[in-house]
Design a protein that fits this description.
Blueprint lengths: L4 E5 L5 E6 L2 E2 L2 E2 L3 E13 L10 H15 L2 E5 L5 E6 L2 E6 L4 E5 L3 E4 L6 H15 L8 E11 L2 E8 L1
Parallel strand pairs: 2-6, 6-10
Antiparallel strand pairs: 1-5, 2-5, 3-4, 5-11, 7-8, 8-9, 11-12
Helix pairs in contact: 1-2
The protein binds zinc ion.
Length: 162
């Protein structure tokens, strides 16, 4: 039987504090924040060095994504109940229920997702890690799984097979 391998990394530094609100047809949450925590599991075959992937590379990539999201308001730009526009360094949001927000652009991160749910954030983080770790193509990685916790014991998981 051939053994299978994975590495799992979740460090105290894999965190971001961010504001968001969930919005979909007929519903909008009030703007609020979470102290998010991220975990990364990568499955694959061992390389000639005995690694699936170097822990150091994963830590660097995960910290970078967390840094991009930290102390920001997360704006999902692919949401059909939210109009997003920017001018003069301000982001304007018009919600389906008629409520409006105006925020400094530097305080926002615009993500190409439909909802800022933990599930879609996990998918976004997965995609960013695939890009920055340059997988596939490098090492024999077969899947990447990201967990995003909104609070302790409350997390979403997104797994992408490569
Ligand atoms: Zn929330």
């Amino acid at each position: 039987m051939e053994p299978s391998y994975s590495v799992f990394v979740s460090k105290d530094s894999f965190k971001f504090n961010a504001a968001h609100f969930q919005i979909y047809q007929g519903f909008r949450e009030r703007l609020h924040g979470h102290n998010y925590r991220v975990g990364v599991r990568i499955e694959g075959k061992l390389g000639s060095d005995g690694y699936v992937l170097d822990f150091g590379d994963i830590k660097k990539a995960a910290r970078l994504v967390c840094k991009q999201l930290n102390e920001k308001t997360i704006i999902p730009t692919a949401n059909d109940c939210l109009e997003v526009s920017s001018s003069d360094g301000q982001i304007s949001l018009v919600c389906q229920d008629g409520s409006r927000f105006s925020l400094p652009q530097d305080d926002c991160v615009l993500l190409p997702i439909a909802h800022s749910s933990a599930e879609e954030l996990a998918e976004y983080v997965c995609g960013e890690l695939i890009k920055s770790l340059k997988i596939p193509g490098r090492r024999q990685v077969c899947s990447i799984e990201v967990t995003v916790a909104e609070a302790p014991g409350q997390e979403a998981v997104c797994k992408i097979d490569l």
